[in-house]
Amino acid sequence: MGTVVLTMKASVIEMFLVLLVTGIHSNKEMTKKIKRLKFNVPQINCDVKAGKIINPEFIVKCPAGCQDPKYHVYGTDVYASYSSVCGAAVHSGVLDNSGGKILVRKVAGQSGYKGSYSNGVQSLSLPRWRESFIVSESKPQKGVTYPSALTYSSSKSPAAKAGETTKAYERPSVPGTTAQPVTLMQVLAVTTAEATHTTLPKPSPSTASTTSSPRPQPMGHRSREMDLWSTPTYTSSQNRPGANPGVQRQDSSGAAFQKPVEADVSLGFVPKEELSTQSLEPVSLGDPNCKVDLSFLIDGSSSIGKRRFRIQKQFLADIAQALDIGPAGPLMGVVQYGDNPATHFNLRTHTNSRDLKTAIEKITQRGGLANAGRAISFVTKNFFSKANGNRGGSPNVAVVLVDGWPTDKVEEASRLARESGINIFFITIEGAVENEKQYVPEPNFVNKAVCRTNGFYSFHVQSWFGLHKTLQPLVKRVCDTERLACSKTCLNSADVGFVIDGSSSVGTGNFRTVLQFVANLSKEFEISDTDTRVGAVQYTYEQRLEFGFDKYSSKADVLNAIKRVGYWSGGTSTGAAINYALEQLFKKSKPNKRKLMILITDGRSYDDVRIPALAAHLKGVITYAVGVAWAAQEELEVIATHPARDHSFFVDDFDNLYQYVSRIIRNICTEFNSQPRN
């Protein structure tokens, strides 16, 4: 009996020792896990916006792939809190596309955010936002406590209603103090969940996102605990990544995982309400540093083929994204050409990059020949009009994409476009090889078409697969408004005819003063064969053409010609001089040029000026009358275009003529800027 009792006692002791050892081992494992959880850096997805995180300063780990343009970033260096945290980190250069840890610090909202292209990410401009943040390397600062889990903003969160937060573990509030205890039952509950939870249920087709927004919608945020304890359910080969961005996403390896149907708060999942964005996404007003009106002429000819046409469309979509389209920045329309051109959408149709990209995706190929010259003529006559959204004060730019070579001639159409103030750019892809050049209807067509032949306005790409390499250089050039030489302005779009009184009352010395006044006015204009042109007529009883509009094509030549004008002497027949200028000077003016007549006289005319002046006004000649000394004020007002107060000037002495140069130029430009560009 005693032996039996001793045996039972030994068995009990042995069982106790086994349980004790097992418990110690389990406690060690639990302690290790607790420590690991305690110091783990929270991980977030690429689509998490800084504004959804309440913490003012935190360290997080970003996954790979956040360089994707669907993760929107607003600003440069200082980012609006509506930006993707990880996207901003890549844009700033703190991270590359492989991901990593970053330190994020919230700062005050800014009055404006400037977009830029950096490190493979195009950030957008934004007028203002309520909160900002900056990103730096994940080096903890001394004395600062960083959260082990993030607190997300969600007023409807079940956890918030229960008086909880999404933080599972916290560091001590003061360095060196003891961490908040985690009970054994809490860890066991999580461990049990880890053992039993292997996959997440797939959503039924009815739960898939059906949002109509053209931009991919956020998938929601996974908390740190979700990354640790859950295993994503990967889709089958029938559900490839990208098939429906509202239902699935890709991890860094390229595999897609499904969004869970329910979010279990007890396992640390973010509540369902946090999966949707509470505020509407701000729409950019556009980059104010690139305020241009753009027309893209795309090649829809049969020779291009479907594959290359898709590449061309993707290039356009990338351009739209990089430009940051908006009413305060660039506006963009698209014309497709084949046998005949057609406008897909004009400048006022889509006023943000998102809508524009969606519209580009819907463009279908027209087929036919590649009549680029006909398309350029179409754009010159129809596209850049006020009705189509042309803003008047913004440069006009037309970018022509050509597969190989056009099937018609482009020189004359391009010349008229340039003279209308349109900056012609050409992008040629896969040009003619030596044995194909015999089929090109117009050799050297690019240099005959572009605004200037200095290389600034043309790109040649060897292969369609290299087209994307021209994106950033093209964006930079079309936004460089200082170098858009063909833009139509008050100083580069006119034919300016000077009608100079050479009567005896002027005298030789004063005549030289008048010529200096003419030269000073001419210096203000941009003079060339495609910009402003200058001509001059001298009159007494008779009239003489000193030089016509087509005589000189540079400012230096015009100024030298003015110096060489000789004083004639005689009577004063101003009416006859106006008729002569209309016939010999302005009759040869180009139809798309503004016609400006600047008449200088020192006395009353011997003949009637009313009928000649009316004829000038009816022919669209804007007349400025400048009277000196004995000139009749009422005659000046009759000669001048209405309103006379803006077009007639009187000075009591020849030596004071110079004072009116700036005023006349200012009035010319004010009048120009109040009219449509074309």
TrEMBL record:
Residues 1-26 form the signal peptide. Gene3D superfamilies: LCCL-like domain, von Willebrand factor, type A domain. CDD domains: vWA_collagen. Its main location: secreted. Keywords: Disulfide bond, Extracellular matrix, Glycoprotein, Neurogenesis, Repeat, Secreted, Signal. Residues 293-478, 495-664 form the VWFA domain. Residues 148-157, 230-255 have a biased composition (Polar residues). Residues 198-214 have a biased composition (Low complexity). One of its GO terms (biological process) is positive regulation of cell-substrate adhesion. Residues 40-133 form the LCCL domain. It is found in: Secreted, Extracellular space, Extracellular matrix. Residues 144-180, 194-256 are annotated as: Disordered. GO terms for cellular component: interstitial matrix. It holds the Pfam family VWA. Promotes matrix assembly and cell adhesiveness. Plays a role in spinal cord formation by regulating the proliferation and differentiation of neural stem cells. Binds dermatan sulfate and chondroitin sulfate. This is Vitrin. The gene is VIT.
